[in-house]
């Protein structure tokens, strides 16, 4: 177990390094340029050139990547910090500290001032969605998987396939049209601001519904498949032939084993949720991490993209690790 | 039935399930596609897909205005009318014509990119499973790193950096899908690379390329057919999502996701403008997903 954790920890570190380099290399294709963005659209080419020289933007890719990594690790001050540049941007945490993601050229603020509050907003949204997805998909999946081929199974299966066929943005537009435009019972936008005429809680309903419906369909299919597989096992037949009531067999004998695969799938859904929030937050103008990532990508804000990618990857890889540990604990066969 | 190798992680468990499915394919059975009509779900999906294929093929002969022609008089009342059955968009372009011509784009870009991703993914998976050793380690690590990315995040960063175009969307789909495909193919290859018929091919002194493509790859067919349909649906969703985020096929091409995005600011006044392209996309994805589900069910009956 300890060996597993150590190995996975090392793999996590390797993934973060490789992925951050990949993103760094990708953003080189972007026409956006840190010097141009810092100075704004009306700076003269000469001014941009001077700042590029000062920031050493002409250095090879690897040199710049190492410099970025040194800033992140607190070994070096961000080149944009230099007061001689006259940019008037300042990080209250100091020039050199561990976890310094540099300055966002989009917001003209330290990345650390921007990213964590948005992440908290997204965590709230994703948390509520998750709390809906788990029971909903369990219920749909177990009901459908109990009697495969029955009418209930057919109806629920088609329902969950339809749910997975609705992309978040299409679902968002449809729900907003129904509940915000025609019925006028819910706000069609969720800026999390007071004074919009809608209570704060009501601003969560549509985004959560979009995230939850799309994902629940998929997880419900997994639960159903797992349920059917377990119900086909000999020990279930034994229990039934012993004369135990079907309800008891399902609740006591089948359910626990049928939950092993869905458990890991559900944790892996967090990876999907991170992607889902990009779209959902954009649809509803929710001030979260996903919308920020999209804005940063469209603007070419390299520091913010890097930081957001690292955070997203960290969350994704850690939940994957948790899912593996859970699988290891739940399934005796995996331990052998 | 015991999995051919102990499952140590969720991904391994999934690969194990796929490998078990592969074992079942060994014995000859009537082809999946021949038994397709016996599944009502698969047929329903196929009908939806064929409907859109037909629409896409017939686009030039249908009596519709050009998808980029603007009707300035209709802009005042963009709702459905006799002249424009599904109304017009914010620029006065006929919604029905744009949906019909948009079907051509999505039905071209999605299959092309998925097939390309399959070519790359199968090559990676076969090499990893057949060669083993450091080749396997390298390919698997690379796949792990890319699969760790939340897919939408990968797409957004990639397309935002290299620019939005049909070709770049294909590249993005290859980059994000090939590792997942390679993982499936690798799992199956590992399960059968030690079988007798592969050893026999070695004895016949067949080349490694022949063994991988002719002896091993056909055994991956079953699980891959289902995955192919699901991936088509998912790629269609992704192409639409990119369009919606402003990263899709550049205007004025009629892109379904882009149409929803353009109509979203008008949602309060003319909700139908955004609903029609959204419904078109949902119905096509539903077709792919229903077909995948029906195929899956047929494969399990074996």
List keywords for this structure.
A: 336 residues, mainly alpha, MetI-like fold, 2 domains, 2 strands, B: 302 residues, disordered N terminus
Computed over alpha carbons, the radius of gyration of chain A is: 25 Å
How many domain units of chain A?
2
> How far do the termini of chain A sit from each other?
12 Å
- Strand arrangement in the largest pleated sheet of chain A: 1-2
How much of the sequence lies in strands of chain B comes to under 5%
Give the biggest sheet of chain A: 2 strands, antiparallel
Quantity of strands of chain A, as a count:
2
Distance between the termini of chain B: 15 Å
Tally of DSSP β-strands of chain B: 0
Q: What is the CATH class name of chain B?
A: Mainly Alpha
Describe this structure in words.
The complex is a heterodimer of chains A (336) and B (302). Helix content of chain A is 72%, strand content 1%. Chain A has 336 residues and is mainly α. Chain A has a two-stranded antiparallel ribbon. Chain A has 14 helices and two strands; from the N terminus they run ααααββαααααααααα. Chain A folds into two domains: 69 residues, no CATH class; 223 residues, MetI-like (MetI-like fold). Chain A is globular. Chain B is 69% helix and 0% strand. Chain B is an all-alpha fold and 302 residues long. The longest helix of chain B has 37 residues. Chain B is built from eleven helices and no strands. Chain B has a single domain, classed as MetI-like fold (Orthogonal Bundle), CATH 1.10.3720.10. Chains A and B meet through α1, α6, α7, α11 and α12 of A and α4, α5, α9, α10 and α11 of B.
Q: What layout of secondary structure does this protein have?
A:
The complex is a heterodimer of chains A (336) and B (302).
Chain A: H1 2-27, H2 34-39, H3 45-55, H4 61-73, E1 103-104, E2 109-110, H5 111-146, H6 151-164, H7 168-182, H8 202-231, H9 234-241, H10 246-258, H11 260-284, H12 289-299, H13 302-330, H14 332-335
Helix pairs in contact in A: 1-13, 5-6, 5-8, 5-11, 6-8, 7-8, 7-11, 8-10, 8-11, 11-12, 11-13, 12-13
Chain B: H1 10-25, H2 40-58, H3 95-131, H4 133-148, H5 151-162, H6 166-192, H7 196-203, H8 208-216, H9 221-244, H10 256-263, H11 271-301
């Amino acid at each position: 177990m300890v060996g597993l954790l150590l190995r996975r920890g090392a793999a996590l570190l390797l993934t973060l390094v490789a992925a951050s380099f990949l993103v760094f290399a990708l953003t080189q294709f972007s026409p956006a340029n840190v010097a141009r963005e810092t100075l704004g659209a009306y700076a003269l080419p000469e001014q941009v050139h001077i700042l590029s020289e000062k920031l050493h933007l002409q250095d090879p890719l690897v040199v710049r990547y190492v410099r970025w990594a040194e800033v992140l690790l607190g070994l070096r001050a961000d080149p944009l910090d230099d007061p001689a540049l006259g940019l008037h941007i300042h990080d209250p945490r100091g020039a050199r500290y561990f976890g310094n993601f540099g300055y966002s050229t989009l917001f003209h603020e330290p990345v650390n001032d921007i990213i964590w509050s948005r992440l908290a907003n997204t965590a709230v949204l994703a948390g509520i969605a998750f709390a809906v997805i788990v029971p909903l998909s369990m219920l749909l999946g177990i009901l459908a998987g109990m009697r495969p081929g029955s009418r209930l199974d057919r109806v629920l299966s088609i329902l969950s396939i339809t749910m997975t066929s609705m992309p978040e943005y299409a679902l968002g537009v449809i729900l907003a049209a129904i509940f915000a435009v025609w019925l006028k019972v819910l706000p069609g936008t969720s800026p999390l601001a007071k004074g919009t005429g809608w209570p704060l809680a009501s601003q969560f309903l549509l985004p959560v519904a979009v995230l939850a419906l799309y994902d629940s369909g998929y997880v419900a299919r997994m639960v159903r498949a797992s349920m059917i597989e377990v119900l086909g096992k000999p020990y279930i037949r034994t229990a039934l032939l012993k004369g135990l009531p079907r309800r008891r067999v399902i609740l006591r004998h089948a359910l626990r084993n049928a939950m092993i695969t869905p458990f890991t799938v559900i944790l892996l859904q967090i990876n999907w949720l991170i992607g889902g929030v990009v779209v959902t937050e954009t649809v509803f103008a929710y001030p979260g991490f996903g919308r920020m990532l999209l804005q940063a990508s469209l603007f070419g804000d390299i520091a913010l993209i890097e930081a957001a990618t690292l955070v997203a990857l960290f969350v994704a890889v850690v939940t994957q690790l948790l899912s593996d540990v859970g699988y290891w604990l739940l399934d005796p066969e995996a331990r052998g | 039935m015991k999995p051919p190798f102990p499952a140590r992680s969720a991904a391994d468990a999934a690969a194990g399930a796929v490998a078990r499915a592969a074992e079942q394919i060994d014995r000859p059975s009537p082809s999946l596609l021949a038994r397709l009509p016996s599944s009502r779900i698969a047929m329903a999906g196929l009908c939806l897909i064929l409907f859109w294929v037909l629409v896409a093929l017939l686009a030039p002969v249908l009596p519709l205005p050009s998808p980029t022609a603007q009707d300035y008089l209709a802009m005042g009342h963009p709702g459905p009318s006799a002249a424009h059955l599904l109304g017009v968009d914010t620029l006065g372009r006929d919604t029905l014509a744009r949906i019909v011509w948009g079907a051509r784009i999505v039905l071209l870009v999605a299959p092309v990119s998925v097939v390309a991703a399959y070519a790359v993914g199968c090559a990676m998976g076969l090499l990893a499973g057949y060669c083993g050793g450091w080749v396997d380690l390298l390919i698997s690590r690379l796949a792990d790193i890319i699969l760790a990315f939340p897919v939408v995040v990968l797409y957004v960063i990639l397309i935002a950096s290299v620019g939005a175009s049909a070709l770049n969307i294909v590249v993005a789909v290859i980059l994000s899908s090939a590792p997942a495909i390679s993982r499936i193919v690798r799992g199956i290859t590992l399960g059968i690379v030690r079988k007798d018929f592969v050893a026999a091919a070695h004895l016949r002194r067949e080349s490694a390329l022949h063994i991988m493509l002719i002896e091993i790859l056909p055994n991956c067919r079953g699980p891959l057919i289902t995955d192919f349909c699901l991936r088509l649906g998912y790629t269609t969703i992704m192409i639409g999502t990119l369009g919606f985020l402003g990263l899709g096929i550049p205007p004025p091409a009629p892109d379904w996701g882009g149409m929803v995005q353009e109509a979203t600011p008008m949602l309060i006044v003319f909700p139908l403008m955004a609903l029609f392209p959204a419904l078109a996309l949902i119905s096509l994805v539903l077709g792919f997903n229903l077909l995948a589900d029906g195929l899956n069910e047929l494969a399990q009956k074996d």
